[in-house]
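Backbones bend. Shown next:

***
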Amino acid sequence: MFSNQFVLVFSLLLCLPFVFFFVAPHVFPSPPPGESLIPISDEIDDRSLFIAAAGSTSLSHLSSGNPNPKLKIAFLFLTNSDLHFAPIWDRFFSGHPKSLYNVYVHGDPYANITRPGNGSVFENAFIANAKRTARASPTLISATRRLLATAFLDDPANTYFAVLSQYCIPLHSFNYVYSSLFESSTFDKSDPDPTPNPRGIRILYRSFMELISDEPRLWKRYIARGRYAMMPEVPFEKFRVGSQFFVMTRKHALLTIKDRILWRKFKLPCYRSDECYPEEHYFPTLLNMKDPDGCTGYTLTRVNWTGTVKGHPYTYKPKEVVPELIQRLRRSNHSSSYFFARKFTPGCLKPLLAIADSVIFRD
């Protein structure tokens, strides 16, 4: 009797791997295509980086009494392909001291990316801790947070953090961008006290982040992981959508680096991949919940969503690159002007360079 029971139990144990192999995929479905879970090894690496960055909160460059503090803009590029417009960005930065800016690039290590050389500002800008990224997945949140943390830790003078893609181009000169962010008394229309202080720099900084609450498909985006998956940490009335490309203050960069609670929600896999764009939800929702008054409610990167294809914005072709296009892309209902624009095909580089000095950098 005992022998028969032993044989039965042993047989069941032998069958378990086969049961798991054939049944588990139906009981525990894999994440849908386009959505990837964050490997635990990446999480561990990121946690170490974020802890180090969060511990580096010195603002001595603002409080040392220096009459001419050097405030910098950190330009953060997310890419999984070549930096097609590196030459026009090199011209954008040309002639301006490194004491005013830094450049950082998160290049997907699994992509075949040709790194610019020959003195390009991008030559040594690639960060060492980059990980694999995929569109419409939480990997883009992780990549952006890595860039923010790296820039935050690298230089305490980094005051604004501009997140861009390899398909972004500048619409103005560096001088225009820098003076607008740090010196203009009229640029940020939502600023209740835009008067510069005696040092000639702005007293109050805001993140140029969209916090959109009336997007028609907002509810479907909210429940893409499941009807109650975001609760209780993220109630629907706090959920927001916005551009994944923005200009963030140092205060908000630190807030983003320190976050753990919302990240646990936004890294969950979606069962509706067509409604799941974590990179467009996480940052607007986080700032809407933590400091909505610290945001302008608009972005400084112009995107044309007419004629969108599979979630991608309209892409400009070389024949469309004329002075009138640049003037049109600059126009904004929210600020005095847009700073950057996307999306352009790589073939647009030549006509853009042809009008760079006479139009784009002529403010």
